[in-house]
Amino acid sequence: MIRNSDTNGTVYHVQGGPMGTLLTIKDFCLWYGRAQALFDVGMGVEKGLVTALIGPSGCGKSTLLRGINRMNDLIDGLRTSGEILLDGTDIYGPDVDVIGLRKVMGMVFQKPNPFPMSIADNVCYPLKVDGVRDKKTLRDTLENALKASALWDEVKDRLQDNALGLSGGQQQRLCIARAIAGDPEVLLMDEPCSALDPVATAKIEDLIDELRGRYTIVIVTHNMQQAARVSDNTAFMYLGKLIEYGETSVIFTNPKVEKTMEYVTGRFG
Amino acid sequence: MTDSGKRGPKKTRTWVLIADRLADRSITVGGVLVIGAVLGMMVFLVHEVLPLFRGGSVESSHVYQLQGKQEPAINLAMDEYKTIAVSVSREGQVATWHVETGFPLEKRSFDLKDKTITAFAKTLDSSNIAVGFSDGTVRFGRIEFRNDVLPEDQAPAGLKKINELYETDGSAVYSRVPGRQIRKISFKLELDDEIQVSESGSPIKVMDYRLTMFGERPKRILLTMDGSGTATMSMTETKMNMFTRKVVTKTSKSSLPPIPDSSDVAFALVTEMADQAYFADKKGIIYRYNTRDFEHPFLAETVETMPQGTNLTVLGFLMGEASLVVGGSDGSLSIYFLLAREGAKTLDGASLVRTRKFEPHNSAVTGFSPGQRGKTFATCDSKGEIWLRNGTSEETLVKISPPEKSSWQALVLAPRMNGILAFSSNGSSGFWDLSVPHPEISLHTLFGKVWYEGYSEPGYTWQSSGATDAFEPKLSLVPLIFGTLKATMYSLMFAIPIALLGAIYTSEFLPARVRGKIKPVMEVMASIPSVVLGFVAGLVLAPVVENWISAVLLVFLALPLLLVFSAYLWQLMPASTAVRLEGLPKFVLMFVLVGFGFYLTYLGGPSFEKFFFNGNFQSWLNGEGSPAAFLFLMTVPLAAAAVSWSFSRFWGYRAYQYIRKMEMPYSALLDLFRWLCIAGVTALLSYVIAVSLAGVGFDPRGSIVGTYVQRNTLVVGFAMGFAVIPLIYTLAEDALNSVPDHLRAASLGCGATPWQTAIWIILPTALSGVFSAVMIGMGRAVGETMIVVMSAGNTPLLDLNIFNGLRALSANIAVELPEAPKDGTLYRVLFLTGLVLFGMTFVINTVAELVRLRFRKRAMQL
Known about the structure:
Chain A: One of its GO terms (molecular function) is ATP hydrolysis activity. By secondary structure, chain A is an alpha/beta fold.
């Protein structure tokens, strides 16, 4: 097993989270078949804050994000080592209920992916999955989630319309609403704005800002300005390794590692 | 580059342009040819089928005045080639003429020894006659046409020309036939010695005559009534001693009980079997004698056929002697069958039933001539109209109105039913050349209920050939369409769940690596020739299923139960162990489990049979024992669906939350317990439903289940399922697989299980593809031939019973085509069968496409 001597056993923490650390990633390695994609990643994700994962393409930031809610499990020949602790429990432990885990971690994908059904059904899907059938609960959740994702005013008159009729930005906010409706603790966002135009992007960023504090948000982004704008903490990854992790302002203005400096100043990437 | 830098548009090379043009042209031609071929196929089918519905037409008509004084005819005959017409008068004068032209031929006469004919009878083929005289004697005779084909050089010299085609030597008519040959048509008249029939010597009033040949032994049946009202039936058998070659003629007589009022009796009829004799008077009262016991005949039935004031004018049999044609002076015409009837108020339990009514003539029916090769017959009325009708289809095929008003005194239908000759007492005669290729076919006989001879009620019957000459083909397509639908329905009931669940399993639950291996295997399964499947199903599977029918039925109940139960047991295992056994071990275990399930049903079959079916399933099917147990089995799936639905609807969420909070092995135990409860409630519910249904008197036997036949629809379902499953499976799997992964990820990211994802997201999104997979499977099942030919028993029945056989449209074509002469009725009906099949698949595919487009529009934006 290849071990990176530099980072072996280290868990980077950023101090200053008001509610403490929610997720602790320790020595996390991940292989796709023979190819290793993550090397001994160690970091703590602060509760209630927005953590951005940045880095050039193929650096493993999306892999890490998907590792947090075990979406990677679907991939054939995947192996991991190390642990990811959620409130002290290893989510890769033998007795973990993966389905239950994903209910705690809402996920928003790169491309808006509403289901081909009505707006209401889309948002209520996590509840449907749980077997909730109470009409009032459903209605309340629908309204709250749409309001939380700043979509309510735009769609309240056409909740039964097909979600595919919405614009790209609206679709992505609907996906956020759907993630919120399941009442998660963590929101994992995998480049949520990469398929959107600048106006829609701005709206999503505003939304992330509003959700700060209520959810622990981990966001993968290519866009360094976006990371700088929305995140509290930023992790820079390169070639499957966590290079540097710290407060966003520090990472963008005064990084400790040369590589980070080169990346944030746009010298490569 | 040294040029000035000026760049015009680049020139495409000539050969590229030519190649492009060429490809364009050849693709266009090819495409048009393909479309043309398909349309041509369709046009060809229609072209082959259309003549079935054309009815009949008059090809040419010839009305002429015969030379010389003509006596009224008591008999009119015509040969098979419509060449010579023969009429016999009451005085024994025999006039002959050429049919088409009226050219007179040799006049002959019977030597009647100065007696006059008082009664005349002939057999159906017109060649054997019997004449009765005023002194109570009867003479048998023959008017036989002879047809010889001679080489051209043997034609006699000095022939007289009739017209371009025919020549005559005075008595015989010669015509040229292809191959330098000459056909000579001649005829022979013979009259035997007289036999005294009426013992009192009073004149024979009415009579009927039948001649049957059993090899070289003629048997004559003669029914007579003389002037004194004495009815006699006599049977004359001629036997030759095998050793001495001595011919012995034995006559036995039997006198029938008298009729109350015999003064008006005008008709007599007897059957070839000599089992029924009829007399009828002018008022339309038919007296039927049962003469099955020749020594002791009795008057079985008296039927009034005509309303008051209407006379019976025509009475006769159609070929086969099962249809009694009755015509009246009001122009009405109907057919009676002699049918064994429950509660018939007759002495022998049978009664004459009017089964068909024909379009009435405008005036009294005066003449009737049955066809010799089917149920077609001709009638004429007092206004001179001649109608050709078919007794089965009840259609009037041809209506002939003669140019001038003439009253036909006699008419005869040509032996091949392709011409009608009529004769009037004023000496004029008419001949019409007809073309009636498919007289018995109409939309009604093909698709409607037809009351066939010998059947106790109207029905849909397919029976294209029979043992006797008098057999009438029964060509209803309804049992065949039904058979096709039945085979399709039962095989889809078997195939759809397996194929779709298999597709969902491979697409959503199997790792891509395994999927890549399983799919080609299933596709290989699709390439097994269906004849092999049919062969195996018919010869191997059918006897096995018959032997182990109870175990086979038990499998459908036991295997799902066992699998679900094991799944719950699996949950009890610690998660770490379960994870370790994931993959190949689990896979192997599943197969072992299925094998074990089969073994269990094999063991449990007999006791299952004992408990549910009185110990013997097949005798239970035949009506022994109570239906409750079977009803229980049938209601189980419905009850299970209802119970589990209502459970999850009302307590599902709560139970789920509760179970979720518990520790691992206990929660699994509780889940198992929950499932057992559902199963128990289901059993209870179906028990209650079954008992109450049975109490109400509902019995599935006689409808969807019934008497067991070895080659049955269940076997067809298995075999056809085997053919259809790979098809549905592959297409459905492709459709499911093509659902974008981001939807799968979104659903799983919401915390849905793979099963929930499959049912709520993947399946609805892929519905258009899955639906067309099912429809294509259905199209295959509808058109499938060899499996149904070999394993369905080919019995064209209208019976929903899953344990009975069937005959599908496709199988019918395969089975009957060798029996169908080109351009014959059966041949064209088989083409119609193909057209119907084509129509069915066309409708199925069109519906599939429309529904698919609808679904697709919904999922289009993805």
